[in-house]
Amino acid sequence: MQNSFSVRLVVVSNRLPVSLARDDKGWTVKAGAGGLVTALAPVLMNRGGLWIGWAGAAADADLKKLLGDFSQDAGYDLHPVFLSQEEIGDYYHGFSNEIIWPLFHDFQARCNFKPAYWRSYLDVNLRFAEVTARHSRDSDYIWVHDYHLMHLAFMLRNMGVERNCGFFLHIPFPSPDIFLKLPWRDKIIRALLEYDLVGFQTHRDRRNFVECMEALVPDARHSGRGNIVSISWKNRTIRAGSFPISIDFNSFASMAAAKDVVKSAEEIREALRHRKIILGVDRLDYTKGIPERLESIRQLFLSYPDLCEKLTFVQIAVPSREVIPEYLALKTEIEQLVGEINGQFTRPGWIPIHYQYRSLPRRELVAYYRAADMALVTPLRDGMNLVAKEYCAANVTQSGMLFLSEFAGAAAQLQKVGATLVNPHDVEGVARAIQRGFYLDTRERHSRMAKLRDSIRRNNIFWWVDSFLQAAFARQLDDFPQDTVDFRTSTYE
Ligand code: GDG
Questions:
Q1: CATH classification of the domain holding 263
Q2: Which of 230, 245, 253, 295 counts the highest number of beta carbons within 10 A?
Q3: Does 484 map to a domain?
């Protein structure tokens, strides 16, 4: 076993954790604000490390220098991988987002199984592996993220480069009846077995993975039943576990309590005339169930007309993958539905649905979380869903309610601690749940939200990173301040 204290961490993901912009004066680079960067940055700084990923821009001498300067400030190195326009089309939009994304979310009819996509995916995984091999050493731990890079460990091994490698899948892993439709199923399942540790969001995803493996790799044997199972294959031991991802709870809670955010939240409530606010926040993606959610809102006002003028639904849809035609079609569908429902129910001084198609600055998003009386998080399928957790963290008044799809990974953890589970396809059921929520006793609401917040506070993003790396190194680490992680009280779901 490696001594974890001497191990440097190499994170590999499709995108580097920075956002780049270019104007007449040249490039500017800003640190990414996502939960993953927040959680991994202290680990990378503490033990030294690097992050490898596509920069989101074409190769350019200025950009390389800028990333170099940025690395110095960040305290860890960033190594860009450059992709051609064709590779962005075939590997990223094609294989990753027109095959794996729909298939792994159970949308098999949306898959475009184009052989050219597969070849590009292999080429790009090889390029990532080459960059990883060049910039890492034998003793490093390589942590690869997500479905774009399932073949990275396989490529390293083929190149004769031995590294201890872990992989975490941020999206669901499908059951065999769906996975077996993938033309490259054997190669992908075997490529995943080239990792030393394979992490999933939930027990269910891990179980699906093991079932697919049983169907496709008869000489692989597995044992154990807890969070982590052992797999023996080709004289190696591979471990597969569930590690539900989370958020930086304290940062959302303290932002929600900040003066300017309290003021913005109050302004939002005032603009909506202090009616109860139901909130939806998603990337505009067909997995998020936005049309179904809008139908539930229509059903709510049809079934319970007494709630008209008492409730307002706010949907924030963040532009995403706009080059894929299906995403544009979905945008049109949503706009039509919003127009139709508003046309049906609007009264003087009250519009039932407020729809915003844009990305909000983080503080404004948190002000919406704080202002909302209820959050409607109803994906048709989701690896975890961080919006559900962020809403609870920001609900510092503990008066809000979370309605959560039973098909979100977050349901496994949050259903036991106060989330109201709904089936997003059942528009009458969702409408009924909201109506009951509207009249729910204040004390009951407080008690549920307090339990939700407590669970998310304990199982936060630092706990997640730590539990993955503990499994990787088989020991506890000391990368985080002690008050951010409490291992003894945390449980996996
Ligand atoms: C994938 C998996 C898994 C949203 N609107 C705005 C905004 N956001 C931020 C939220 C949240 C993130 O985007 C969305 O995270 P989700 O988890 O909900 O969804 P995916 O993007 O699909 O993420 C998912 C996740 O990976 C992590 O493993 O949970 O299942 O699909 O953090 O805050 N941020 C800002 N403005 C917005 O308008 N600033």
A1: 3.40.50.2000
A2: 245
A3: no
Q: Which atom of ligand 1 is nearest to the CA of 201?
A: 28
Type and span of the H or E element at 422: strand 420-422
Beta-carbon count within 10 A of 462 CB: 23
Structural domain span for residue 371: 249-458
Would the CB of 97 count as within 6 Å of ligand 1? Answer: no
pLDDT in tens, 67-98: 888 888 888 899 999 999 999 999 999 999 99
| Whole-number average pLDDT of the chain | 91
Site to substitute for ligand 1 among 204, 246, 357, 387, most atoms within 8 A of C-beta: 387
CA 183 distance to own-chain centroid: 26
Dihedral Cα 378, 382, 388, 393, nearest 10 deg:
180
Q: DSSP readout, 312-341?
A: EEEEEEE---TTSHHHHHHHHHHHHHHHHH
Question: What atom in ligand 1 is closest to the CA of residue 316?
Answer: 38
- Are both 132 and 166 inside the same structural domain? yes
374-424 pLDDT tens trace: 999 999 999 999 999 999 999 999 999 999 999 999 999 999 999 999 999
* Partner residues linked to 283 by β-bridges: 318
- 162: how many CB neighbours lie within 10 A of its CB? 9
| pTM (predicted TM-score) | 0.94
Same domain, 419 and 470: no
369 assigned to some structural domain: yes
Pocket test for ligand 1, best of 11, 252, 268, 386 (most atoms within 8 A of CB): 386
